[in-house]
Write a structure and sequence with these properties.
- Helices cover about 30% and strands about 15% of the residues.
- The protein is an alpha/beta fold and about 325 residues long.
- Helix 1 packs across helix 9, helix 2 packs parallel to helix 3 and helix 3 runs parallel beside helix 5.
């Protein structure tokens, strides 16, 4: 058996690599104000271990896209060098990164030079007070400056990820789209998912994809994009006839599990076959007990072979009946 296949015929070619579980924001839908118990340093994968696993994924398992995530990946020491070493595994790799944007102004040129192609920046509000309320930090200007720096460095298209929350920022969809259109960013709205450490998510508070689109249509004309979606999570819509688009990721109400092509590596070396997985496969132990590449690749294939058909969030069940992910988002990696 070649590649990372599962019993439903899906092939994982997109690897999400979490570089740390730590973050310099405290977003209310992700973690408590005091933070979380961070992973001990000796449990985190080293740069050499990350590069080895990525090499196995690319050369032995058919992975062709790598996205670095966290926590907040920009706080990982030596990030540009890690990206450079990954780029050297194949210059046709699609290398990207998801970040909160803090520190991006300083490091964006180095990331581009190292081989990073593009990035996504999380930004849920343009209102300073709301940003402070949501993230528990007064850093909106740093995020906005980071977006500009990324675009200037050529990390394009710069994508902006926004999560709308009922009674918090659910009135900002049109403003966020205007902001993105004026600056040439690509905006993607993401339905809030039950991966918060506090387990406060409720279906009643979910702002659905349909609600997001209805809000956008109060100011914009939207028409379905004819571009093939493939395994991309976002359904894209042409704005006022195009060419600009806006994306909506309906992970809860219209999941894309059937076309999912992702495999996930946590910062402590665990393979997850799904964001909402309740089990993990330990590759760190294999790395550190002298296992060869073939053994590691075989364990990885086995982990992905058992991937479930879907996460079940779209099924009409009560939240307490849903098997929540075994870790919060900051520990899993976006």
């Amino acid at each position: 058996m070649t590649g990372l296949l599962d019993t439903f015929g899906r092939r994982a070619t997109d690897l999400r690599v979490s570089l740390t579980d730590k973050c310099n924001l405290r977003c209310t839908y992700c973690m408590p104000a005091e933070g979380l118990p961070w992973l001990p340093k000796d449990e985190l994968l080293t740069d050499d271990e990350i590069v080895r696993l990525v090499r196995i994924a690319v050369q032995d398992l058919g992975v062709n896209a790598i996205r670095f995530t966290g926590g907040e990946p920009l706080i990982r020491p030596g990030l540009p060098d890690l990206i450079r070493r990954t780029y050297e595994l194949g210059d046709d790799l699609d290398l990207s990164l998801t970040t909160n944007g803090l520190g991006l102004e300083r490091i964006a040129p180095a990331l581009k030079e190292a081989g990073l192609r593009r990035l996504n920046v999380s930004l849920d509000t343009l209102d300073r007070a709301r940003f402070h309320q949501l993230t528990r930090r007064d850093r909106l200007d740093d995020v906005l400056t980071g977006l500009e720096a990324a675009q200037s460095a050529g990390l394009t298209p710069v994508k902006v990820n926004a999560v709308l929350m009922r009674g918090v920022n659910d009135d900002e969809a049109p403003a966020l789209l205007r902001f993105a259109l004026e600056r040439g960013y690509e905006l993607r709205f993401i339905e809030q998912m039950p991966i918060d450490a506090d387990h406060q998510w409720t279906r009643d508070n979910l702002i659905t994809a349909d609600e997001i689109l209805d809000s956008l249509r109060t100011e914009f004309e939207l028409s379905p994009s004819v571009a093939p979606r493939g395994s991309a999570p976002a359904e894209r819509w042409l704005v006022d006839g195009g060419p600009a688009t806006v994306g909506v990721i309906a992970s809860v109400t219209q999941p894309f599990c059937r076309a999912c092509n992702r495999t996930r590596l946590t910062a402590d070396g665990q393979i997850r076959d799904c964001l909402f997985a309740t089990t993990e496969t330990d590759l760190r132990a294999l790395l550190r007990d002298g296992s060869d590449d073939a053994e590691i690749a075989g364990r990885w294939r086995t982990a992905m072979w058992g991937k479930a058909r879907g996460h079940g969030l779209d099924e009409p069940v009560r939240l307490e009946e849903f098997a929540a992910a075994s870790r919060s988002m900051s520990a899993i990696g976006g």
